[in-house]
């Protein structure tokens, strides 16, 4: 497949953080850095920086064929992803997981420039605070599919769905995806150790390339690692124990680099000694990821000192004076009511009774009116008692209704019991039927076995 000479759109930033995303068309871009000197445009700003990190459209004499990964079968998903990423690194691009299907048996692997940037917050040039922060997405449609085949022993098959890109290729060192694959915890610990020894950033890059052959690391990675270490120290999550560092890595090469070492002959590729502008351009991947205090002149003053964790105040423990035993509370005694309290309570109750509206109305009535009310209440009570007596007599004279209700209830209970017994009987018969079927099959198997053993003997049919 021939190389593409399409220039990258101007909104591409030279460096963006890379992470594999599981959302459709929302996979993060990948940071790009140009390893060779030359002019480049940073985001939407048109300034030129010599020797700095360039965007996708940076000058390069290498032409990449941008060929897709070869189709084939792989023993696992990790093996498929590893092979596809290795192929992409050798052909000028990088891949990222763009989407998982619900079954987790298919995966969409797309170019890091796949899709178009989304303005989810609907920002404009007037409302945007962080200027010049473009997206790496160019609308590239290249993607491949990984699919698990249960019939093939759960092996994975890679199929190319769209092989064409719409952007030129770049070196693997300019792609943060490929750089991070060659780095690890050991590299980060060595960056920490060299920083404590006041090594400059370009010295750290060259020492790490000698210590770890094949590692891809740039000045920007060193500054990002230092910013990460600074945040850990401020949060108190970083330990100051480097005793196990020298046990795993041979540091005999440390003596080969004197204190005044400024780099090898290819320091121009790293941006060393090119001035403050190029140095800061190579070290400004993200304002939130890089501490401004860590940016300095590579050819001038030494690197900033390694940050120290704030000392913790030690509280002097003073001997406690002997404490006296707490006083015991007096025993609880039940209060004894006094005669004066009882008298006061009776008087208060009497006053409340006299203030009641019915009591006042009763006092205002005359004697004949009171007697009339008493007679009416007495008559009402008598009528109520007579009604209750009539109802009781009716129940005693006609008990058939209650007896009928009781008889019906007993009949319902008897029928429910019979129904339950019948259900139990049916279940028992079904179990016996299953047992008879099993016994019949067993006897048939015995007959077949006897026939096979005595095939020609008469009398056995």
UniProtKB/TrEMBL annotation:
Which spans does this entry mark as compositional bias, Pro residues? 301-310, 319-334
For bias kind Basic residues, which ranges apply?
A: 346-356, 372-381
Q: Where is the composition biased (Polar residues)?
A: 390-403
Coiled-coil boundaries: 426-453
GO terms assigned for molecular function: methylmalonate-semialdehyde dehydrogenase (acylating, NAD) activity
Q: Where is the composition biased (Low complexity)?
A: 15-28, 335-345, 357-371
Q: What is this protein called?
A: FAR1 domain-containing protein
Tell me what organism the protein belongs to. Answer: Lineolata rhizophorae
């Amino acid at each position: 497949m021939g190389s593409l000479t399409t220039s990258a759109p101007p909104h591409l930033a030279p460096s963006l953080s890379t992470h594999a995303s599981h959302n459709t068309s929302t996979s993060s871009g990948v940071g790009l850095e140009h390893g060779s000197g030359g002019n480049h445009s940073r985001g939407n700003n048109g300034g030129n920086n010599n020797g700095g990190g360039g965007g996708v459209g940076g000058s390069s004499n290498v032409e990449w064929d941008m060929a897709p990964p070869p189709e084939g079968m792989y023993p696992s998903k990790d093996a498929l992803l590893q092979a596809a990423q290795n192929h992409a690194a050798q052909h000028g691009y990088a891949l990222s997981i763009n989407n998982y299907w619900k079954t987790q048996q298919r995966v969409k692997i797309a170019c890091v420039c796949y899709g178009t940037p989304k303005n989810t917050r609907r920002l404009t040039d007037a409302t945007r605070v962080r200027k010049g922060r473009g997206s790496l997405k160019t609308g590239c449609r290249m993607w491949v599919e990984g699919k698990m085949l249960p019939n093939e022993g759960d092996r994975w098959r890679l199929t190319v769905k769209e092989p064409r890109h719409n952007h030129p290729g770049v070196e693997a060192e300019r792609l943060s995806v490929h750089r991070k694959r060659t780095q690890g915890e050991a590299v980060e610990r060595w960056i920490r150790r060299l920083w404590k020894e006041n090594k400059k950033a370009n010295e750290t890059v060259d020492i790490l390339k000698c210590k770890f052959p094949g590692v891809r690391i740039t000045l920007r990675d060193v500054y990002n690692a230092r910013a990460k270490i600074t945040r850990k120290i401020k949060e108190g999550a970083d330990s100051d124990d480097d005793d196990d560092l020298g046990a795993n890595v041979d540091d005999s090469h440390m003596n080969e680099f004197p204190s005044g070492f400024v780099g090898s002959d290819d320091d121009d590729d790293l941006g060393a000694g090119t001035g403050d502008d190029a140095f800061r351009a190579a070290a400004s991947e993200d304002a939130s990821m890089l501490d401004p205090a860590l940016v300095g002149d590579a050819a001038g003053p030494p690197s900033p000192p390694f940050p120290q964790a704030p000392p913790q105040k030690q509280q002097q423990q003073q001997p406690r004076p002997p404490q006296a035993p707490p006083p015991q509370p007096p025993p609880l005694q039940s209060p004894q009511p006094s005669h004066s309290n009882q008298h006061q309570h009776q008087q208060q109750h009497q006053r409340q009774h006299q203030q009641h509206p019915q009591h006042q109305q009763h006092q205002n009535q005359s004697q004949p009116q009171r007697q009339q009310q008493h007679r009416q209440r007495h008559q009402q009570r008598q009528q109520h008692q007579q009604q209750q007596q009539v109802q009781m007599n009716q129940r005693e004279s006609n008990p058939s209704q209650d007896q009928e209700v009781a008889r019906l209830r007993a009949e319902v209970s008897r029928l429910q019991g019979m129904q339950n017994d019948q259900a139990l009987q049916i279940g028992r018969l079904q179990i016996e039927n299953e047992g008879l079927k099993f016994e019949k099959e067993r006897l048939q198997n015995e007959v077949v076995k006897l026939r096979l053993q005595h095939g020609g003997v008469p009398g056995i049919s």
